[in-house]
């Protein structure tokens, strides 16, 4: 019996992506925030767009006692609140018929064995043919026991002609050692090709557009190198504090929470060479090469090239906010950084000598994620007599919000005298394409069901990223990495971060 | 064109001053953003369609910022002449207001060269030209015009003489550089249905039945027979069926010589309200006989688990169909292939 969905001739010309097969999606931690806010609304939206595979079953696995009906009712409420598309009652009823709840402790092997039985029953009743997708949406401390019990119960092994895959939510460890342990553990249950590590930034339309922008437009790739680019700035700022995540965040900090995954992924997409094709491994091979080319920062290099800071009391969006140390559940003497600015060097032919500045922080004036390529100055000869400084060209890729691309260039001010001013060519997705773009989780869930790992992090990517981050953290812990600075909430970070970029003659972009 | 209709078209302008007047319009329109991703030209020979097309452009512009060029040709007018109006369609998007511009022309008298000229002269440069031709195609075909078009949009359900019109469409496709993408809205209309049928066979248990189909039953709305035929042509092409006519009775033959019978039934309702594929005791049915935005997709019989699912059917309204066409982009490589297989059934 054919198993390759590509052999369905009726699919020709309808889709340009892999088609997901019928499957059971098991969510560990199904009563958590992620399931309610992201996963189930994403699944509903996929159903509304006709993109879910036929007869999918979604099984929530959690410790609280509840029936399928109660579970469905809770998810309906969440979907009505968080779905990007309005809930259609008829469709919801149809969709909810595929939602099930399985109560068990994560530690209880019997719960997995009964899950296996239940999945077999669902396969028989709904035709899902033994295809299983396990989504680890629980706390990372629960991953080991869940993976172990999946293995012990045999759920990690697909029946012939079927598949068993696992989706792992970040954090992928807390350092290289724990990442290796986690990866070994995952690998002992699932092959790498069946492991999907989610970094939801990669599911965003604009992140996906980086490759299109670079490799489908001859104009950009011409200057995408050290000959023309003076430096690159990658920023992820947010006005929020730690909110309800104090416990997690204080153990993690900005470096591990954001830089190790999201920002290094954006750096990879910016700096990578063209892949040989668009397959998952071809793209990820190029990203890994970038990570391997990142100059490791050790010891006192860290003090020169990395700034870490913590916010103090200030004002955000017109409201007074407390400093990090005064946030609820944050230890009074913690050294956890809420801000990081660093200068990275990609030591390869294309980028030699070009600083990649990364900054990320909480309680900054506004929320924005973007990549900015600052081009080198034109030779200062022709317009010298005007006495004006000419602003350099800047190409900005806005990841969120207001996704788009802009190019700053110089233009003559109308009039009889020669005055030059910067102007901006601006492309806004929202202006040009009125249609709402799918949420990142929609794309990522669909890709996992179809077995397409392009937008997921591979093991070697994760581990290489940790090597870079661990070296910096080791320097901080040894005291060689420089002191923890502070910045007032509602500002763009500490003075030390400004000094960091000024060394190359740059300044941080005003967002 | 009546005064009432022309009043809805905006500001009357001299044709030679259109770009200047548009510039003034944008100066006066205040803090709004003009946007344009495509040139959307619409040609009609019906005066009553002009106002409808203006409404349609206003809706399209909310998702596809464009320069719209509406042309009404009054072929029966005794004297040649031309008039023009300019207008803007604005809508709120996030924190700003986004506007698209519309230029409307009335061309009096039968002058194909005037049509080509007004379109060429008023395109927003470097942007693709999508041209919706709402009139019958006629010979001689002006290759200068057709070769300039990136997407030629038409609706075969509106034709009185489908066989003759399809022959002209095939000629247009063969003209010049052949870069024009043919977009029959009737083909676009079938997208949800084709996706729905494909969806059944994404299930690998159902896939083997695809090569065992022995009957196709399609229910279509009055005036939508061509939709049903295109659907049939698509199935036939994808499954390598050949049309077989014996004593005036049509059926298809699969490569294994199996006969596939078909039945097209007319009934009030959606464009295609039902499509049933039978393969021995297995049945795959997309049903939209009840009002709603979904197909009830059921598969029963056979060696697979019966299933029932709702799949999006879209809406039959022309605006949605056009939006879908513009949103999907890309080419339609199977369209002419499907068409070629149903030629004998068009008469």
Main β-sheet of chain A: number of strands, strand sense, barrel status?
A: 9 strands, mixed
| Helix percentage of chain B | 25-40%
Question: What is the average per-residue confidence, as pLDDT of chain A, rounded to a whole number?
Answer: 90
Strand percent estimate of chain A: 15-25%
Instruction: Tell me which protein chains meet in the greatest interface and how many residues each side has.
Output: A-B, 43 and 49 residues
Structural class of chain A: alpha/beta
Helix content of chain A: 25-40%
The DSSP helix count of chain B reads 11
Q: How widely separated are the two ends of chain A?
A: 56 Å
Task: Give a quick set of tags describing it.
heterodimer; A: 511 residues; alpha/beta; nine-stranded mixed sheet; seven-stranded mixed sheet; 18 strands; globular; disordered N terminus; B: 347 residues; eight-stranded mixed sheet; 11 helices; 17 strands; elongated
What does this entry look like structurally?
The complex is a heterodimer of chains A (511) and B (347). With 511 residues, chain A is of the alpha/beta class. Helix content of chain A is 37%, strand content 21%. Chain A has 15 helices and 18 strands. In chain A, the strands form three sheets. Chain A has a nine-stranded mixed sheet with strand order 16-15-14-13-7-12-11-8-18, with helices on both faces. The longest helix of chain A is centred in the middle third of the chain and has 26 residues, at 246-271. The model of chain A is unreliable at 1-6 (pLDDT under 50). Chain B is of the alpha/beta class and 347 residues long. In chain B, helix 5 (143-148) links the parallel strand 7 (129-133) and strand 8 (151-154). In chain B, helix 9 packs across helix 11 (335-342). The mean pLDDT of chain B is 89. Chains A and B meet through helix 3, helix 4 and helix 12 of A and helix 8 and strand 17 of B.
